[in-house]
Design goal:
The chain is α+β, with helices and mostly antiparallel strands. The chain folds into 3 domains: about 1-150 and about 280-325, BirA Bifunctional Protein, domain 2, CATH 3.30.930.10; about 150-270, Bira Bifunctional Protein, Domain 2 (BirA Bifunctional Protein, domain 2), CATH 3.30.930; about 335-420, Rossmann fold (3-Layer(aba) Sandwich). Helix content is about 40%, strand content about 20%. It has 17 helices and 17 strands. The strands form 3 sheets. The chain has a 9-stranded mixed β-sheet with strand order 1-5-6-12-11-10-7-9-8, sandwiched between helices. A 5-stranded mixed β-sheet has the order 14-13-15-16-17. Helix 1 (about 10-30) packs across helix 4. The two termini are about 40 Å apart.
Length: about 425
């Protein structure tokens, strides 16, 4: 029995890692005032085609349901959340919404990205403002801080800025030309310059002009560095980008740089865009987002702007592993062990009592010998060992799994106040 290509099962340790990121994300998004929501995993195909049109079908899972309706699996949270907010005419604005869960994309499977994977997402809907954009980037930076990740860089840009430069170079305001050249810029991190030039030359584009755009996309650095090496007066939205950097500096976010090569591939972005990288890794972007006012307008809401970010959970987990960050399964987990079958009944009673006191407890159910039980308890904080000699005196053995030290404890103390005896801080 095999899974469809690009799918996978998520087992114990993987789920621990996913839950670790989910916990940090939900705590932080709540701290910033975001309301958590789980949008529907199935949308009408027409909803997902709202901005990108039928071309999106090549990248998603879609089918007809039993009612002969064309439906599709969500490929991100932005479309569903924007559909929801756009339908809520009386919703108080600005609306700050977060989400976490699985999404589906019919992409070529790659390291850190299967066709079903997990994302975290935050969105702000309301009047367009630089402070909303800065808040999204600030939260993103703080999330990576809370996960203890190092070497994180947030590259920011503005779509209008790149589009204005493309229009100047090609002396054109053809939207299709701009869209095609933006796709060429977006490919520069994945393909060689020569391959891109060849591909777009075959489509009829001037390779000399395209090469200028690709060279432009390599410009990155601080405001001062960019202004020193390039005449930014010819660029639209440069002052807006500077204001965003200024707001982030005011918020204490220092790991941001300007990168003219960041344009984001999706068609619905309309202003500021950014991506997050571990500068010492080759995994690619860990998160990305920006302003997408054109999407709310496409859903019929001319009065609402939107900005947001989403991060790839599995790719973040790989980055944590590269940096040697391993989330603990449970700092407060307890294992109850027994010497022989006669001690098993008492051990089961103790385990049940601990669980009634909201203490995470493991116990072997299959009658393994003590050595095997001990091997399976290596990630527990303590082991309670039920042995005949100690039990005769109304005691059990308490073993500290971090240093191997042991002591004898009265069973009555464990039954009366287990959290105090085990020195656990439990909810």
């Amino acid at each position: 029995m095999e899974l469809p290509r690009g799918m996978k099962d998520f087992e114990g340790r993987e789920n621990v890692n996913i839950e670790h990121i989910r916990s940090h994300f939900k705590q932080l998004s709540s701290l910033y005032g975001f309301s958590f929501m789980d949008p529907s995993p199935i949308e009408l195909l027409s909803t997902l085609e709202t901005k990108s049109g039928p071309a999106i079908r090549d990248e998603i899972y879609y089918f007809k349901d039993k009612g002969d309706r064309e439906v599709a699996l969500r490929f991100d949270f932005t479309m569903g959340l924007t559909r929801y907010v756009s339908s809520q005419k009386s919703m108080k604005l600005p609306a700050k919404i977060s989400a976490f869960g699985g999404v589906f994309r019919y992409d070529e499977p790659q390291k850190g990205r299967y066709r079903y994977f997990h994302q975290w997402d935050v969105e702000i809907y309301g009047k367009a403002s630089i402070e909303s954009e800065a808040e999204i980037i600030e939260l993103t930076s703080r999330l990576f801080d809370s996960l203890l990740l190092k070497n994180i860089t947030i590259d920011v840009n503005h779509r209008n800025l790149v589009e204005s430069y493309i229009n100047n170079i090609f002396d054109s305001k053809d939207p299709q030309l701009v869209a095609d050249i933006l796709r060429a810029v977006d490919k520069i991190s994945k393909k060689s310059k020569d391959d891109i030039l060849k591909e777009f030359q075959e489509k009829g584009y001037d390779s000399e002009k395209l090469e200028k755009i690709l060279e432009f996309s390599q410009i990155k650095g601080t405001i001062q560095q960019v202004e020193k090496n390039f005449d930014t007066k010819q660029l639209e939205s440069w002052d807006e980008l500077k204001s965003l950097i200024d707001s982030l500096e005011n918020r204490g976010v220092s790991n941001v740089r300007i990168n003219f090569g960041i344009v984001r591939g999706l068609d619905y972005y309309s202003g500021m865009v950014f991506e997050v990288f571990d500068k010492n890794s080759t995994l690619g972007a860990l998160a990305g987002g920006g302003r997408y006012d054109t999407l709310t307008k496409a859903f019929g809401r001319e009065d609402i702007g939107a900005t947001g970010v989403a991060g790839g959970v599995e790719r973040i987990i790989l980055t944590m592993q590269e940096q040697g960050i391993v989330p603990e399964l449970s700092q407060n987990r307890i294992s109850v062990l027994y010497i022989n079958d006669e001690m098993q009944k008492v051990a089961m009673s103790i385990a049940s009592l601990l669980r009634l006191n909201n203490i995470a407890t493991d116990i072997d159910l299959s009658g393994k010998n003590l050595k095997k039980q001990m091997e399976n308890a290596t990630e527990s904080r303590y082991c309670i060992i039920v042995a005949p000699k100690e039990l005769e005196n109304g005691k059990v053995v308490l073993r500290n799994m971090s240093d191997g030290s042991e002591s004898q404890v009265d069973i009555e103390k464990i039954t009366d106040d287990p959290k105090s005896v085990l020195n656990l801080e439990m909810p």
